[in-house]
TrEMBL record, chains A, B:
Enzyme Commission code: 1.2.1.41
Catalysis: reaction(s): L-glutamate 5-semialdehyde + phosphate + NADP(+) = L-glutamyl 5-phosphate + NADPH + H(+)
Protein name per Swiss-Prot or TrEMBL: Gamma-glutamyl phosphate reductase
Keywords: Amino-acid biosynthesis, Cytoplasm, NADP, Oxidoreductase, Proline biosynthesis
GO biological process terms held by the UniProt record: L-proline biosynthetic process
Record function comment: Catalyzes the NADPH-dependent reduction of L-glutamate 5-phosphate into L-glutamate 5-semialdehyde and phosphate. The product spontaneously undergoes cyclization to form 1-pyrroline-5-carboxylate.
Residue intervals of the Aldehyde dehydrogenase domain: 8-283
GO cellular component: cytoplasm
Family that this chain belongs to: Belongs to the gamma-glutamyl phosphate reductase family.
Subcellular localization: Cytoplasm
Gene behind this protein: proA
Pfam families xrefs: Aldedh
Length: 416, 416
């Protein structure tokens, strides 16, 4: 057993013991712990910011990119927002103990499926220190123990936030081992987490494509992850013109760097105002890449084959003309990443066909793909958006961090 | 790309196309296909039995064990039972299209989560040829395409059953690619299935521990599997004596080779009739292995540490004395395989504590662990019993072969 494996084994064993206690904690106790954790984070604002300033100085000296530095940076406002996020999780509905369904068998056995925590959740993330608190709060509220492994550049910030968080757990009488921070920046610890089959129940990677791809490639533990959000908005021939333009612009440009942003616009050849739509998008300053027909409508760069499979996460949009909903469905089946796809149309039958046939975690009608978000979906938060097909799909919050068990209550039945 | 990889890639691509059609098939069409498949299997009884006779002759010449030969053997009665099984699946409630939950957001967006098929299911099994029809029927009824890889000793039998099955699909206008049989017995094809990430959505191994362990160790595709059923029945001090004896005997001895059989009996030191209980079990001819206290009650062999972690699947039972429900919970936490565990007690508070705290897929009160079965649970069938924690737990039938997607219906909403 390597040092990293031994470390993770020990942490996971303590996490399992803590998870057993947490699984029995009632909603009020978990909420109290998170409220106390939020207060502790607020109280430690100066300490956390000071630790972050040291991380920032090292990171700047180490030549971290401005974008990464911005993710790493904490201000008193950002610390307050982190604390607010933890307090908000305390107010969410607790899925644990909920009865999914119940049945009485002809022999009198009473069956019920009840929600129980998953167990031990491993979270592997990058430079944002707020994930330490966010992910721990969601895990604990769903009755799980969390093993947190943040980016090495955020070590001091993460330790300071974690120290405050576990004070909150202790105040409510919950075990501090319910939220453990991996104490080493040794990358072997990540490998040990990914191979901790039977010790860690699920791994949630939170970060860029490189991290998620590594986790998915190496993990022996189930992973809750999304890799790409190559999202499509399809403008049907029966779309309302104003709505089409407003949604297309919002879906692409509101925030270009989030996974719910539209990356490809599909326009029905029967849509009468294609040129105006393309012009409206061009007016936003977005770089447009079109197929030959789109190029005939406006002065846009030619899209190459690779464009249809690219998540730009930037002010770039590929545009293709298609033959109605069939053309859109064919394009989406070939190129979508199964995250979020939308149709804009006034024709309900066409919309229902699109909703039924697009095989993505989220399918929308007359709405912006930018709504693909746990908060917007009313989940109160999200630990991630899953593009996998198993267990949980789309935005995942507390329910996705639980599983169920079958309870069978009898009166002495034996099986014939 | 190796030959096996290319083969599986081609089969999975055709399966994906078939799955897309199947996902849209209505319940009546799927039921009609299975009814026709059942009729085709019945009509082909002679052909299937003749193919099986050739498989049996080769297997006997090859020295297959009597137990394996019995699993391989088909008779007209067994073929009829297989056909009946397929027809029974046609009558099950179709989960596809079911609405899990629905909500209207303050901005007017209407959200719903609806059940959709998983996609492409890979089934890897051993000598029982009936799995060809059982697994294909469950997959198709849940809207999935199946890729079936049976044991090499059953090649002819599987081909004959498969040929009948797909005639049924074709009669209902469903694509034959919805149930494909891997045409080679090359073991590399199994490896190619296990690594077909993104092509096959889930692998279901159906067979002995060796197969399941190999699948779990090698698979890059999610696996729905159970490895061990090290099940406990705990006789509490407050158990009714007659009930305790009847259930203990049934839980161990009704059928010793199934995964729901009890393997370890835990007896509360406060239970007043322990000696009679042990004697009742000894009377059945079961080999008993006890700790020192149990040995003091009856003439039984000494249990060694390994016994507490062994799934005998035979007429062997390990017995330990414990200190009440706390002792039982501690023993189970240490040794259970998270399959099925039961408490026998007249004390409701003790029972509820056991139900809440035992972390297994199925937890029972005053019932025999032998009820751990999809049919007994009212699921109508089962593709397996999952001891994993994610996606589906315990007996898995149609619902476990589905996932969900989020549908969002708007009226032009853009995200602020």
């Amino acid at each position: 057993m390597t040092e990293a494996t031994a470390l993770i084994h020990d942490m996971a064993t303590r996490a399992r013991a803590a998870a057993r206690l947490l699984a029995r904690a009632d909603t009020a106790t978990k909420a109290q712990a998170l409220t106390a954790a939020a207060a502790a984070i607020r109280a430690d604002t100066d300490l956390i910011c000071a630790a972050n300033a040291r991380d920032m100085a090292l990171a700047e000296a180490g030549g971290l990119s401005p974008a990464m530095l911005d993710r790493l940076k904490l201000t008193p406002e950002r610390v307050a927002a982190t604390a607010d996020g933890v307090a908000a999780v305390a107010a969410l509905a607790d899925p644990v103990g909920g009865v999914i369904d119940q049945a009485v068998r002809p022999n009198g056995l009473v069956l019920s499926r009840v929600r129980v925590p998953l167990g031990v959740v491993g979270i592997i993330y990058e430079s944002r220190p707020n994930v330490t608190a966010d992910a721990a709060a969601l895990s604990v509220m769903a009755g799980n123990a969390a093993i947190l492994r943040g980016g090495s550049e955020a070590t001091g910030s993460n330790r300071a936030i974690h120290a405050a968080f576990i004070r909150g757990l202790a105040e409510a009488g919950l075990p501090e081992d319910a939220a453990q921070l991996v104490p080493t920046t040794d990358r072997a610890a990540v490998g040990a987490m990914l191979s901790a089959h039977g010790l860690i129940d699920i791994i949630v990677p939170r970060g860029g494509k490189g991290l998620v791809a590594r986790v998915q490639a190496e993990a022996r533990v189930p992973v809750l992850a999304h890799l790409d959000g190559i999202n499509h908005t399809y403008i049907d021939g029966a779309a309302n013109r104003e709505m089409a333009e407003a949604i297309a612009v919002n879906a692409k440009m509101r925030r270009t760097g989030i996974c719910g942003a539209t990356e490809t616009l599909l326009i029905d050849r029967a849509y009468p105002a294609a040129a105006a739509l393309v012009a409206a998008l061009a007016d936003t300053g977005c770089e447009l890449r079109g197929d030959a027909e789109v190029q005939a409508l406006a002065d846009v760069r030619a899209a190459v084959e690779e464009d249809w499979d690219t998540e730009y996460l930037d002010a770039v949009l590929s545009i293709a003309m298609v033959d109605g909903v069939d053309g859109a469905l064919a394009h989406i089946a070939r190129h979508a990443s199964h995250h979020t796809d939308a149709i804009i149309t006034g024709d309900a039958a066409t919309a229902e066909r699109f909703l039924a046939e697009v095989d993505s975690a989220i399918v929308m009608w007359n709405a912006s793909t930018q709504f693909a978000d746990g908060g917007e979906f009313g989940l109160g938060a999200e630990i991630g958006i899953s593009t996998g097909r198993l267990h949980a799909r789309g935005p995942v919050a507390l329910e996705g961090l639980t599983t169920y068990k079958w309870l069978v209550r009898g009166t002495g039945q034996t099986r014939p």
